[in-house]
Amino acid sequence: MAAFTLKVNGVDHNVSAEADTPLLYVLRNDVGLNGPKFGCGLAQCGACTVLVGGRPTRSCVRKISEIKGDITTIEGVGTVDNLHPLQKAFIEEQACQCGYCGNGMLMSAKALLERNPRPTNDEIRQALNGHLCRCASHNRIVRAVQRAAKEMQS
Amino acid sequence: MSLSRREFLKTGSGLVIAFSLSPSDLFSQTTAAPRLPGSLNNNRMLDSWLRIGPDGSVTIFSGKIELGQGIGTALTQIAADELDVELKRISLVQGDTALTPNEGQTAGSQSMQDSGTAVRFACAEAREILLSAAAAKLGVPVSDLKVDDGTVFDSSDKKISYWDLAGEADFRKEATAQAKPKSPSEHKWIGKSIPRRDIPKKFTGGAAYVQDVRLPGMVFGRVVRPPSPDATLKSVDTAAVRRMPGVVAVVQDGSFLAVAAEREEQAIKAREALKKSAKWNETASLPPTGALLYDYMVGLGTPGQTMHDKTSDATLAAAKTLQARYTRPFQAHGSIGPSCAVAQWEEDAAGRKLHVWTHSQGVYPLRGDLAQVFGIEPSAIRCTHAEGSGCYGHNGADDVALDAALLARATAGRPVKLQWMRDDEFMWEPYGSAMVMKLGGALDAQGNLASWSHELWSHPHSRRPGQSKGAHTLAARFLEKPVGFEPVNDVPLPAGGSDRNSIPGYDIPNVKVVKHFIRDTPIRTSALRTLGAYANVFAAESFMDEMAAAAGVDPVEFRLRHQKDPRARAVIETAAQRASWKPGSRGDGKSGWGFAYARYKNLACYVAVAAEVAIDRKTGQVRVLRAVSAVDVGQVVNPDGVANQIEGGLIQSTSWTLKEAVSFDRTRVKTTNWSEYDILRFEEVPQVDVVILNQPGQPFLGVGEGSQGPTAAAIGNAIANATGKRLRDLPFTPDRVKKILV
Fold this sequence. Notes:
The structure holds two protein chains of two kinds. Chain A is an alpha+beta fold.
């Protein structure tokens, strides 16, 4: 075991774990977050996505020893009482059924809007194409991202 | 999280003390007692459905669980209307063997019919009881009373509230269902797209899933499954794994193997080590793959049972006859999050007790399975539902609950959270059964259907806990003292299982339906959304187009010619209109439109789908560009919820239809991760337009499984419309498309 300091949602966390521990388990079990989800452990589905240094990162395969940069999870994006426009838009569009993929969708959408504040429908689909949704809420998710982009513009 | 019903009810001194009778006591009475609507019939006590607290709270108890389909929100809308209270007053308790009624499985698109109807009548009756009590207190007749958010007013504005009456009104009695529910004109909440109450926490990192259940002292578990369905464990070095960092327990019981560790990543590493060390005896027990699978299924010679045989006196002077065979492979639920459960054993003077947190669709049936495996009374087990990742039928939810409970026996009272890995999920979830459908039909001289035959071959579509005697949870049969189960019967008609929707929903003078129900299969199958209806509707509605083409009649017109039910006609006509259906139009080789219709189970929601496809003739890729669906689900409670279900079902079915088949060789399942089981992605998802034909005052018909069958057929029909060539084997992969275009 080795000691690591991770900055998660603006707060430093000291963690003792093996260097090859995937970030996901540290976030869920040491930091105690619910947002990032275990989906495949293979970087195939996107449910575990968090931002590291602002970039969407599949936390299920990224070792903690490799983390360089601040980590943002969906908990750091906004809260129920103080929703980020993306969270507000996902709720307003009722953009899920089970919602298990929603964490990854929202985090990748956040990174997209930061580099491209006015994405087209096709650009949103392209940005999220590596995220799997099985309940098939895709169109609602795209609408939510468009709605958030609009709100963030105004 | 470990509140018992008794403790729960102690938190307010409400008028409900406890369950007056356990549901199982009531089953014996139901034969003699009058039939009550929905799940009231099996859970007849009013107090098992609702509680009014003196603190101004209203609690609804339902045995149907939230799967992200929005049932929780819809139930509160119904309760709010029947009780005349604001939505925000209502809290909901769902799926807990210590707290809620036993409503079996949350399945079959029946939650609105079962639980929605029960809540409706129970709340209407509760309101009547409360109003009688209010009338007595205020000294006026009930007819003089009005209710506003639980406060009862008489004509002189004297008032008393439900909360004041909580001590007087007694719900510890059997429901009569004599109180008349509200008429549609009185609805304030029903019929509105109320935002779902489960969603905000899902987009803010709230504790929303069983994966988020955390208990003091909890350890993490993983299971080590055999490499093939019929493998048995030969040897394994558990001692070496026990010495690995963080390992708390290794359980080996027969061929069941699992490990618990302090940290999750330690459990995963220990699982890998066990996998490496374990030696298995494997047998080549699986059926042939590819096209040979279907010949094999038919060739087994399972006797056919005639499920429907209608002959008319009209002489059958067939002008034209057609026959066609359709197939559907084994397909996976493929939930994004692998199955998960938390289990904890406790020991007190009364003996061992087990508490399981589970995303099972049926907490009571699961409890029955666990009781059999552990040889303890069901009353010593509590199953509490917590949401899981998408549920599209019987996935690994029940199985992982048993895995966690088996492992938790070795952790000295510490709770175990066990989540399957991705390969566990793909290789061991029960699949939707492969099926073969042979259709036959004859046209009379006028080009109308004179006869129709539908013959099908299928494995079981329901092998859930409680389906037959014994334990259906996966690990039970791998234990040193295995617990098996008796062969299951098919789900009986009229809903049907393998034969669901095999009887055509059209007016045809001569109809014969035969099923070959192949009970035994080394590939485990159970309920996947729609059971047999997806494949049967795919076949029948494809064949309907083939018959229409033989008759030289437009497919929509052909369907209407054989359809008298006005509600069926309305969805067909509406979908055609919304899709700007052009009768008789043919595709240009690269794009086309297709149409299909079915009434789910022949007794539930009516759904018509029109779909537009584009075909890349070089690559064989089919894309569904756009789909329109018209639906009649009876009285609509939450329109956005209905649209979400229809749209989700339609897109999921597009994925099944274009892409999905579980692969295997004669020994092993070869599908282990998403690169081997591609599903529809954002760039491939069609635009979907849902039109809802509301039927205020009509019974709820359910919605979750209405669009899948028609979607598959509409896509096949669109490809035929575009190219003049028909695909009869699912899925419509590029290779198959290229083959017909040659």
